[in-house]
Amino acid sequence: MLPCYVLLDLETTGGNAVHDRITEIAAVRFEQGAEVARWSTLVNPGTSISGFIERLTGISNAMVRDAPGFDEVASQLLKLLDGAVLVAHNVRFDHGFLLNELARMNLPLRVKTLCTVRLSRLLYPQFKGHGLDAIMQRHGLVSSARHRAMGDVEVMQSWLALAQAELGADCVKGHAQSLLQGSAALPPQLDTDVSDIPDTPGVYLFYGESQLPLYVGKSIKLRSRVMSHFQAAARNAREMRIAQEIRRIEWVETAGELGALLLEARLVKEQQPVHNRQLRRENNLCAWRLEANPNSRPLLTLVRGAELAPEQFGALYGPYRSKNQAQTHLRELADAHGLCLQALGLESGKGRCFAHQIGHCKGVCCGEEAPERHHLRLQMALVSHKLQVWPFAGKVGLREHNTRSGRTDIHLFHQWCHLATVHSDEELQEVLQSKRSPLAFDLDTYRLAMKHLLPSGKAYAGILEFK
Predict the structure, then answer these.
(1) Within a 13 Å sphere around the CA of 237, how many CA atoms are in the beta-carbon half?
(2) What is the CATH number of domain 194-271?
(3) Whole-model pTM?
């Protein structure tokens, strides 16, 4: 099949390569088609084996009690793997466990890998199941030691021999070599050919069995970023869960990073992928509105929803993701600047506020400070949190061009909202003439627009203004 490879199987205390440990190793090395070494050993995992795992594998706590630890057998395993391709059924599983075990010893694992699940899918595309049990049933293979490391290695060995007899050695070799080109880290159940994903800016969507995505991400190099998820799965619990659930990948190319960021933010809010923690819909966004009259009580009112409109930003400060965050920040400002909690609306009552009694308020609550002076100090405390007024007369477009792909995107904004991304004059005119309802304020889009339309407080020279 390959000039030099090692068929390997591990038994473990569970399915999480980060937290679970190895209980058994079996490996058979082949050089130029001939078996040259065979080795297996139980391994003391240093942790308890559950009843479920014992029933599945037949390996008990008593069996591994006097077995060597992984650190005692690692050198022998690395010697077997030296110069060989690591071949396993769902190789990501075994490779991930070896990576973590060796990392605990501060040792690297530099080995090419080949997944026989993916090889089976290439060799026998007419069949749906490619797990070891499905392969055994389909080809009439038997094992008296299923779910033991050497028993499963011998099933793989028998299947490879059968595939070469049925399809020809050159066919098996050709497909095996094609899989070595960066695909070994891929989940075996993945239907998408990652070589089709361009290394250009854009957004990618991971799907499981559902029509809703598991995860949405963006990158200026799509294929490289997608591969990094699977390469990190052995060490990151969330990436491992994604890799276990994923079935297909979709992607949308953009001209540049801004387009990818805007599209990612929109898709996450629309589809709410279970594995996206950031960019979720901001249902509780709010901001403080400052009253113009220094004698108003309270001086600040919390606004949200339709009241959190860009047209009102000249008098709004924030924004905050929740009422609690807004109040906590205002208390911090009051404490730092000697502001009155009563005047701000954070404390009820009349007369001297509690902060004045302990020397933290300058006395606007009891006539010792003029309301106008307190109002001015409040404005100064809030100034860095003031929401930016839209600086253009109307809608603007930001042109983004990719010289490599030749793609051009024009991102249209108005009042800090992203209206659309267009690619032609017809689309541009349609959006400019549209009478659509005003969009709701979105914090992520606001921050992106601020960064790209007003870097360092000065607008880009290439912005297109439409009145």
Answers:
(1) 4
(2) 3.40.1440.10
(3) 0.62
